[in-house]
Amino acid sequence: MKLQSIDILIILIYLLAVVVIGLVLRKKAKENKEEYLLGGNSLPWYMLCLSNASGMFDISGTMWMVALAFVYGLKSVWIPWLWPVFNQIFLMMYLSVWIRRSGVSTGAEWMITRFGNGKDSKLSHSVVVAFALIAAMGFLAYGFVGLGKFVEIFIPWNLVAPYVPFEVPTAYIPHFYGIILTLIAGFYAILGGMASIVWADVIQYFIMLVVSVVIAYIAMHNLSIHHLTVPNGWYSPFFGWDLDLDWSGILSEVNEKIKSDGYSPFSIFFSLMLFKGVLASLAGPTPNYDMQKVLSTKTPQEAAKMSGFVSIVLLPIRYLIIIGLTVLAILFYDQLNLRSANGIDFEKILPSAINNFVPVGLMGLLLAGLLGAFKGSFAGTLNAAQAYTVNDIYLKYIKPNATNQQISTMNYATGIFFIILSIILGLFAKDVNSVLQWIVSALYGSYIAANVLKWHWWRFNGYGFFCGMLTGMIPAMIFPLIFDTLDLYYFPLLLAISFGGCILGTLLTEPTDTETLKKFYKTVRPWGFWKPIHELVVQEDPTFEANKNFTLDVFNVVVGIIAQTTLTIWPMYLVLMQWIPLTITSVVLAICAVILKKTWWDKLHTEEIKKTEQTTNKTSALI
Question: Do the Cβ atoms of 354 and 11 come closer than 8 Å?
């Protein structure tokens, strides 16, 4: 263990700082529901952007990505499309604007905007709340598992055991660490609400920026001295029918990892991943901390900017540290202790590489940043769970006229409840990858059909939404017990069942009332199959113009995904000192930036100016 006094001091200072942030912002967060859940819609978009990026820089996900980069090299840039990472591009181009126009506090409350206040709306609202809370619990358990496994390497149990008044079985040592740090994360999130989460995330982001650059430099320095022994094709992001990576004679056990991951034949895996990713992105963000950050922005245009710049501020620095630690791990593999009872534990590559190759002082800064990343994603997810519980259950069904003090007390109570629940779930989770696969492939599969249709088809109603979500969520819980394969491969079946539920639920019931549909269409202004509603709106307001940006939005999404992919692979080429591919990637990125400046950024400012003029004209008319 290389953790020294200076490292420990840095970590303690950071943990103390985030606790102080929670205490300082506690009073303001207690003012009302909007201050606690959305920061009063007063936070600048660039702070929310850094916060969102910081929250995505979580320990568990970074451990997974380092393992992927170690095994698959540059081909690993495609596998995070499982999330899918390019959902940020859809949000950037148009969906964040649509979501923010609603002016609600949660994704479940958004159901009222779309379906009104009837029985079908209540059903759709309830099923979104259920989904949001199930997903939140999955993410909380996911973070808990990765955190404990990460910390165990840096703080050996023999140093801690004398201060623990009870015996902890060896298998539960990582969970003990997870519990302690989870409680710290929960403390400042519960006290200060969204504002404290954002401020803590911003501090953590700049820590990670410094550390990522230094680690990338260390990796490049060592790579200039030593040779990287990897299979043919490891340096290339391109692939054929299969991955064609053979670690035989280098590290043969990695071949077993490739086989067990189930990504081959990679062409079929990639096609399914892209198919699912596009549909998931069209559906919009799931009801979690990402959507809460969108709803926390000041205006729809700022929501788009916030989502757009997440990729710019996150991907380059995240992949600097990912590829940097990957290079060091491969160069000095013999110094890592990755053995476990079941063979090599690839999820230990990240903490082992840090433990062996990061110098004193910088290690404390890195650990503070990564622990902060865990706390950021945990706190953001916790905030979302609180929002859905308080706003969509307590205030809607139990105590609609609750005072600010009662709302504040309920926020604290639900926060404590979800912290305890996340710890219990984390104790039973197998590993990081098992939780991850269930979240992104099974549970999210149930979300897609209903949430694509809600944007684009006027006839789709709350009953259809409820039936689609329910017929998706039930198989999502059962299929992992039936199918002995990667969850992605049974996604089409899950989608078909959910889509069937949407259509039957819609066509067998009455449409949503016309006034609700007209208000939604005028406020959110989606494109899609809205002709009957458009005609009714135009009858009342002949000046109303339909959203004709479908072709432009699709074009921008394609360009944006290309740009996002180059942002991902650019730091990898840089650290690996692949100068020709780096130059080509830079040129492609520059071309994408010029295009999007004209087709996206400039149009956002045009919309802002138009909105300001409309507001000014209305004010003048009133005077």
Answer: no
Share the mean pLDDT of the chain: 83
First to last CA, the chain: 71
Contact status, residue 573 vs residue 588, Cβ threshold 8 Å: no
CA 333 to chain CA centroid, Å, is: 31
CA distances from 553 to 91, 293, 294, 521, 550 (A): 11, 22, 19, 18, 5
What is the distance of C-alpha 582 from the center of its chain?
27
Distance CA(557)–CA(87), nearest Å, equals 10
Q: How confident is the model at residue 526 (pLDDT cuts 50, 70, 90)?
A: very high
Residues 525, 547 contacting (CB under 8 angstroms): yes
| pLDDT beyond 50 at 612 | no
| Residue 440's pLDDT band (cuts 50, 70, 90) | low
pLDDT digits (tens, 9 = 90+) for 163-221: 777 787 777 777 777 777 777 777 766 766 777 778 888 888 898 898 899 899 999 99
Each residue of 489-517: b (16+ CB within 10 Å) or e?
A: ebbeebbebbbebbbebbeebebbbeebb
Q: How far apart are the C-alpha atoms of 526 and 452, rounded to whole Å?
A: 12
Map tokens 């003029």 to a residue: 613
Nearest to 462 by CA among 472, 474, 451, 473: 451
Question: What distance in Å separates the CA atoms of residue 502 and residue 368, rounded to the nearest whole number?
Answer: 46
Would you tell me the crossing angle of helices 462-482 and 119-154 to the nearest 10 degrees?
Answer: 40
45-56 and 300-331 helices, crossing angle to 10° = 30
Comparison of pLDDT for 129 and 459, the residue scoring more: 459
Helix H, strand E, coil C: the string for 81-117 is: HHCCCCHHHHHHHHHHHHHHHCCCCCCCCHHHHHHCC
Alpha carbon of residue 374 to chain centroid: 12
For residue 200, the one-letter residue type is A
Distance CA 86, CA 508 (A): 35
What element of type H or E holds 6? helix 5-24
Secondary structure of residue 166 in the 3-state scheme:
coil
The answer to whether the CB of 385 falls within 8 A of the CB of 107 is no
Smallest CA-to-CA distance from 143 within 30, 219, 62 is with 62
| CB-CB contact of 416 with 190 (8 Å) | yes
Q: What is the mean pLDDT of residues 225-251?
A: 90
Please, where are the H alpha helices in 284-361? 289-295, 300-331, 349-357
What are the residues whose beta carbons fall under 8 Å from the beta carbon of 12, sequence distance 6 or more?
none
Q: What is the DSSP string of 218-286?
A: HHHHHHHHS-----TTTT-----SS-----TTT-THHHHHHHHHT--SHHHHHHHHHHHHHHHHHH---
Tens-digit pLDDT profile for residues 263-310: 888 998 899 899 988 998 999 887 676 777 888 899 999 999 999 999
Burial of 520 (0-12, 13-18, 19+ CB in 10 A): buried
Residue with tokens 């940020």, as numbered in its chain: 88
Closest alpha carbon to 437 in 468, 481, 384, 480: 480
Rounded Cα distance, 347 and 335, in Å: 16
208 in Cβ contact with 368 (< 8 Å): no
* Rounded CA separation 404/177 (Å): 35
* Cα Rg of the chain (Å, integer): 24
Query: Which tokens sit at 595?
Result: 């295009």
